Amino acid sequence: MFVAVYWWRVHPGKEEQFRAAWRRGTDLIREKYGSYGSRLHRDADGRFVGYAEWPDEATWRAAFDAKMVYDDPATRAAFVDAIAEVPVDADPIFTMTVTDDLLVRATS
């Protein structure tokens, strides 16, 4: 398994818009590119951090190189509109191969 970690700062008042677009975009990326989905976190400074799981680095790289474009312009527009800041070049802050996975998956 392979993971990529991203972060975004969101315009004040657009947090729910961002989260809804992130959820829909994650579903579309999973369907089109074969990701396992992702988790969204919020740190103490208000920054959103996404952790996305992929079957392997090659699958992630193909999606990343394609800019993870999906056929839902309204979702993409809502996502972009909510974002105030991303890392330089919008690259992930980490890409990593999972060596040991001890997470217990929630059943609900």
Strand-helix topology:
Layout: E1 2-10, H1 15-33, E2 37-42, E3 48-54, H2 57-65, H3 73-82, E4 83-85, E5 94-97
Antiparallel strand pairs: 1-3, 1-4, 1-5, 2-3
GO molecular function: monooxygenase activity
Pfam families: ABM (PF03992)
Keywords: Monooxygenase, Oxidoreductase
Instruction: Please describe the biggest sheet, giving its number of strands, its sense, and whether it closes into a barrel.
Output: 5 strands, antiparallel
Question: N- to C-terminal separation?
Answer: 23 Å
Mean pLDDT across the residues is 94
**CATH fold name, please?**
Alpha-Beta Plaits
Q: How much strand content do the residues show? A: 25-35%
Structural class: alpha+beta
Order of helices and strands, N to C?
Answer: EHEEHHEE
Low-confidence stretches: none
**DSSP helix fraction:** 25-40%
What is the total tally of β strands? Answer: 5
CATH C-level category: Alpha Beta
Number of domains: 1
Organism: Sphingobium scionense
InterPro entries: ABM_dom, Dimeric_a/b-barrel
Protein name: Heme-degrading monooxygenase HmoA
Pfam family, one: ABM
Describe this structure in words.
The structure is a single chain. This protein has a single domain (2-97), classed as Alpha-Beta Plaits. Helices cover 35% and strands 27% of the residues. It is globular. 13% of the residues are buried. It is an alpha+beta fold and 108 residues long. Helix 1 (15-33) packs across helix 3 (73-82). The protein has helices at residues 15-33, 57-65, 73-82; strands spanning 2-10, 37-42, 48-54, 83-85, 94-97. The mean pLDDT is 94. Pfam families: ABM. Residues 1-65 form the ABM domain. It comes from Sphingobium scionense.
